[in-house]
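Our preliminary data section would be incomplete without showing what the modeling component actually yields. Below, a chain of 407 amino acids is followed by its predicted structure, encoded as tokens that our downstream tools consume directly.
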Amino acid sequence: MISRTPDGAFAIVPEYFEYQTTATRSYSSKFVDLFGPPRPSYEPIDVGTAEGRRFADLAASVQRVLEDTLVVWVTEFGRMPTFQKGASGRDHNPKGFTVWLAGAGGWAQLTGMEPHAALKLLLLAMLLASTAIVLAWTRSVLFAGLFQLALLLNSAALGYLDVLFLPPLLLTFWALQRERVALASFCFGLTVMTKFQPAVLAPLLLIHALGPRARPGDAAAPPARSRRPLAALLPALAVFGVTLAIFGLPLLIKLRNVTKDWFLCGGAFNLDWIATWVIRVAVPGWAGPLEPSGLCPMISEIDPLYMWPSKLLFLAAYVAILVAWWRRPKTYPNLLLFSTLAFLAAWLLSAGMHENHVYVAQVLALLLGWFDRRFVGVAAYWSLAAEVIPSPRRRTPLSIRVWSAQK
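Predicted structure:
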């Protein structure tokens, strides 16, 4: 069912697992046929019974075989940022980063480091690489230092994996500034194949590369340039094709699952977090109250019907941003401005967002503040806001007051 390789990687037989297709459980019916029915997750195992001894034997067997590989991976890569209802543990996250896991795990085995420390070292290395790109790009030691400081907490410090796609994302915007469309397309393909969230930017980048330069008769329009649709599309499609050839059907399943949200909010301090908080306070009998500690956990397995208001609101804002960008001069600061607006619209309005998904908007706001000094305040605001955004998954003063009143 699971095999290990000498470098610390592993392979699984997908028929025994369902984490890649559903958020309801990680195992399949075939798994149940092999090991027996599951027990309630948070009840203690009574080894005085035959059933309890069976579960204890299974737990010991799994730990003995997988403690160096899968258990560490699930702990670090497969957990939601929020606490699940009525318990102190966290829900499983069906999205994983196996490519970077293999690198971190191999590095951990090579150096003898604890796997979590190896992961942190990998994230720090990616942040330093990103800072080096910014330094070479802007020639400003001050800005590069502030850039690294602004992103340190939400990368190496807290262990968020978004920094893994930051180098190719930065190279995408560097190449667009220099009108190297093919290189930008290739780097953006790498970015999206590392993590899917930046795909929100794809229409804006295509409009920048292929759309009209400005409204007819606009004297402030930048000079015309040749449009190269193949250069804008083929490199990114080639990256996708190679990735698909390597990973096959699971990649398509992941892409399909991107459009499926199993909860209003995954910890992001946005409109759907407010809706989640209101639901738990106003109608606790439907979805449960706030946690005893004052936390406002996500509402999992919610009816998709309740997702549509926020999805439609996001789509309306997103289409309005695309139309406005189509009509505006295709200057580089405008590209950064509308890219920032589009990603903030997704993060603030759309369902299923986690707190770390603001990372892209934070990076774009920093670049916008550098290339257009009118937006220095915007860059400073989102740099500070991104540091406190993880707080909704902890206690908030408002949550504590309401919980005290309910108690």
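Residues 70-77, 95-103, 391-407 have pLDDT under 50 and may be disordered. The first strand starts at residue 2 and ends at 4. Preliminary results of this kind motivate Aim 1 of the renewal.
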